[in-house]
Amino acid sequence: MNLLRIPVALALLGASALAGAQARTSYDLNEGRVRFTVPPDWAAIMEKTEGNPQLVVFRVPDPTAEGSEDMASVTVKTQALRGTATFGGLVQEEFELSKQQTGYERDPTGAGENVHQYFVQRGPTRYLVHDRFRENRGVWVHIRCQRPLLAATPATWNQQFDAACQRVVASTGGGA
């Protein structure tokens, strides 16, 4: 009878381990002043959650880019606004930095207040980059969604990526 309990106990232990291994979807930066959520299949590949600025970078699964150096990613970066650091100044600084990237070309279809959409060249691959900026409780928030423009990528995947990025922006409390 005791021999039957061992497999049951192991099965329960395995199930609880799997439940604990679920992907993290909720994040916060700047001592909880900025909170956001991401899809469970996005892997955080870099986190800096102390000091100023703070950021989390996510690798977004892209079947077309697998096995290559190309990668779709989303970055949420924050900076507490203090002293001379102003929202508009930080936005302008990011605009200028983006223009210095190889192959920079503004995409007029992604224009809007506190929105900057553009193309850059990374090695042999062209990327679409979409930056959104907002202020949240005294913190500057920069959300960057970037994906490689690969001919084999299905249009549905691009639409899903863009929609997921929009949901991350919305989860920060910002709509722009």
Give an overview in words.
Keywords: Signal. This is PsbP C-terminal domain-containing protein. It comes from Dokdonella koreensis DS-123. This protein has about 180 residues and is an alpha+beta fold. It has helices at about 1-20, 85-100, 155-170; strands at about 25-30, 35, 45-50, 55-60, 70-80, 105, 115-120, 125-135, 140-150. The chain is globular, with a radius of gyration of 20 Å. About 25% of the residues are buried.
SSE layout and pairings?
Blueprint: H1 2-20, E1 26-29, E2 34-37, E3 43-48, E4 54-60, E5 72-80, H2 87-99, E6 105-106, E7 115-122, E8 125-136, E9 139-148, H3 155-171
How many alpha or pi helices? 3
Low-confidence stretches: 1-21
Helix content: 25-40%
Q: Give the strand order, joined by hyphens, for the main sheet.
A: 3-4-5-9-8-7-6
Average residue pLDDT: 87
Per the CATH scheme, the topology name is Protein Transport Mog1p, Chain A
Number of domains: 1
CATH architecture: 3-Layer(aba) Sandwich
- The shape, in one word, is globular
User: In total, how many beta strands?
Assistant: 9
- Specify the biggest β-sheet: 7 strands, antiparallel
Order of helices and strands: HEEEEEHEEEEH
Which CATH C-level class is it? Alpha Beta
- CA radius of gyration: 20 Å
Helix/strand/pairing class, anyone? alpha+beta
Organism: Dokdonella koreensis DS-123
Signal peptide: 1-21
Keywords: Signal
Protein name: PsbP C-terminal domain-containing protein
